[in-house]
Amino acid sequence: LRQRLAVVGAVAGTVAVGWLYLRHQKERQRHSRRLRDLRALALGQGDFQLLDTEGTPRSKADFLGRWVLLYFGFTHCPDVCPEELEKLGRAVELLERDPQLPPVQPLFVTVDPERDDAAALERYLRDFHPRLVGLTGTPEQVRAAAAAFRVYVSAGPRDADGDYVVDHSVLTFLVDPDGLCRDCYGRSRTAEELARSVRGHMDTYEPLPA
């Protein structure tokens, strides 16, 4: 009887090991498929073809390998954009206090290319974070960039002086080193909350396979 029980136990153990192995293999295959799907998504998600303040062409590919905080706005914005850029810069500064964290690249994309040329962006952005990169382009390029991130943009009516306000989504996007949009933050989030969220994404980040 003991011998029979031992045989039964050995067989059951072998079956259990085999089942666990198959389950592990299935999980690995599912994880690999998910990573491949994410890589394919990253290649087409939120791309843009714009110019920086030095006139250098920039696309999303130029920022692969870095964490990016991206905000869409315009230099003639009376209050919301300055507040959001100050918050963005503050969040980057909080993250920079920890030398073990990878650097974060702050980006500003104008939604008002008619008035926001390279010179206007350079003058405007110097009041915020020193590493903040400004991007502009043709109206078609700017519209395409906003659409890639599903940002709403609508220019209002012009006043007697030809001035106007641009209504747009107030969101800051977090893009990971693989080019995937990991999170977005609305106006109600504080700089401390942004920094804490970015740190959390960094802590759980796993690079996608090449």
UniProtKB/TrEMBL annotation:
PANTHER family: ELECTRON TRANSPORT PROTIN SCO1/SENC FAMILY MEMBER, PROTEIN SCO2 HOMOLOG, MITOCHONDRIAL. Residues 39-203 form the Thioredoxin domain. It is a single-pass membrane protein. The keyword Disulfide bond applies. Cu cation binds at residues 77, 81, 168. One of its GO terms (biological process) is mitochondrial respiratory chain complex IV assembly. Its main location: mitochondrion. SUPFAM superfamilies: Thioredoxin-like (SSF52833). InterPro entries: SCO1/SenC, Thioredoxin-like_sf, Thioredoxin_domain. GO terms for cellular component: mitochondrial inner membrane. It is found in: Mitochondrion inner membrane. This is SCO2 protein. It holds the Pfam family SCO1-SenC. Keywords: Copper, Disulfide bond, Membrane, Metal-binding, Transmembrane, Transmembrane helix.
